[in-house]
Give the backbone structure.
Amino acid sequence: MKFGFVRVLLLIAALFVAIPVHAEQRNFYKIGVITELSGDLVTGGNITKRGYDLWAQEVNAKGGIEVQGKKYQVKLVYADAQSNPAAGAAAAERLITQEKVDFILGPYSSGVTLAVAPVVDKYKVPMITGSAESPLIWKNKFKYTFGTIPPINFTGATSIKTLTELKPAPKTIAIIGSNDAFSKATAEAYKTAAEKAKLKIVKFSIVPSGQDMTPLLSAVRSMKPDVIAFGGHDEEHVKFVKALKQIGYTPKALLMHCGITDKAFTDAVGKDGEQIFGTTCWTGTAKTKSKVLWPTASAYAAASQKAFKNPGDYTQGGCSAAGIAFQTALQKVGAKPGMDEAMRAKLVQALEQIDVQTFYGRVKFATSGEFYHANVGLDPLTIQIQNGQIKTVGPKASVEAAAQYPMKDWKSR
Amino acid sequence: MMELLPQALTDGILLGGIYITIAIAFSLTYGVMHVIDFAVGEWIMFGAFTGYYLNKWTGLDPFIFLPVIFVIYFAVGYLVQPVIHRVLSGTKGNPFLMGLVFTFGLAIMFRGLALTAFGFYSNSIPSAFSEGSFNLDSIGLTVTIPTVRLMGLAYAVAITLILHYLLKKTNFGLGVRALAQHKDAAGLMGVNAKRTGSYVYGIYVGISAMTGVLLGCILSIGAQMGNEYTIFAFFVVVLAGMGYLAGVPWAALLLGLVQSIFMIYFNPSHTLLAVFVILYIILLISPRGLFGKGV
């Protein structure tokens, strides 16, 4: 009986080992999309979905991706990662082994991306995430994973530098991060940059995700930091601003991250969002020029406005740019739908070689070092919300408006 | 660091007030119907969105709508309860487990429904009370009390007192208590279990929905917000002793104080771990909750 059981187990194991990822003959690219369509990160997940959808819609409207003289349409197959890394990994397995997708457009969050990356490496299926930013992803050097948004330790220092150049220059900073892969990395990136800029760090705390931070902010208030920097996601940004307002503390500068670039943030907090700083690498007014799909950032923002009644933020843009990166690599290598393992390996090589100007800016993936396979073609920007609009306030070469500093007291808004 | 203690205690009590509002009606429902309603967070979420839209459409302060929201959701709860009652009074399988599964399913369905109806963005309910705060600097204490959180505590105290009065001083309350003690015996004494259960569930859903408005003013709202509050409601009720209503305010305050003090004096990233450890130790010593009076 026992021997029989072991044999059954061996048979199941053998079946798993024996299942190769067969190529399928078809006249369209079948693209797997793993993202957070439910759970705590549903907002970000849906923003990534918009980015991927807009790219697919635009490609198909133009007849498809032209490879060796023939145009192939794209078809997105979605899998919900449920804001849960394990569910994301299971979704990747399903998309690869059952749906037999040609390649994958990756999750919103770094946590899920870190769980999916080993799976795509195992099956040798390329993936580009248009959102995840944790440096951990790139430090792991996953061969088949790429990302269009630069990691936060690549972008974070710019905002701290912009703040230190303001007059009167801030001297102290409190840094808080939510306890997830991206937010924690954001807080750590701000900490490293603050140390370099010789800002005195009066508080550095990582708090459980989604929690009420009022008690912690009350403690921070007693330290009277000039700058408060926070790494978190959309819902936490809203809670953070409200908590600061409720305890009545206005720092000279409040720095968050790119999550504040979505119009929904200003809709949620209203005038309290005014003068908040953020870190990003793209805005709808960025001066970019491209020959692929959308000619400029503003053309993309207009297309997004038409499709979703929202001009789109840097995450959505990063996801559409991920599609463009694949598109460019497919054309470069001449890969037709239904790719085999050898062709997918060539696609990875092509992704490593591409250097393309998009509406999002330059996409060029690093091929070595700590940013391995992350996009290093973009310049980080410091932005600030001014009259409900996102304005670039640093670095000097990209300035659209002068930074408003120090921040207006909550009560006088 | 000791100068932060008054603020830490104040924040803890205010946080405890929020937990009372989340858990007190949840505990009442368990005491009477013996069902752990996993949809508590979703009732809170629906209430929050109702307050959000009423504010958006009328421009009036959401606190004005609390009675309206209570009435609407009381009616909803009153109508939903017979379905839960049917599940719980079934003869096949384990009715208690069926109740758990049913409310869990209800929660998932509500979450999906909300995502479709309200969208995926986080939002906030503006209120005049969110603006101000009381400063106790004048009496030598470095303490700030946000008005909206103080309103939350006042609401928690009011709900607790009203429920206490209802249960201890009215005939309806006598019936509810009898039902909680022994359903069959209460029935023989003339208590209509079905109707009383519907009233209790209606009250619970109404209070939860009002709590949602309050949470939307203090924190934020979103289609997925419910899960977090279900966990905290469960936490408080287990700590208080399942179904022991009088223990809820103390358990909620303890939870709020532990969180606040731990966040300020220890490693904030381990706050939830601290809460779990304390809950574990208390349940190890007293499995029927803080006062040993739970089911």
Q: What stands out?
A: Chain B has one domain: 2-285. The first strand of chain B starts at residue 133 and ends at 135. The radius of gyration of chain B is 19 Å.
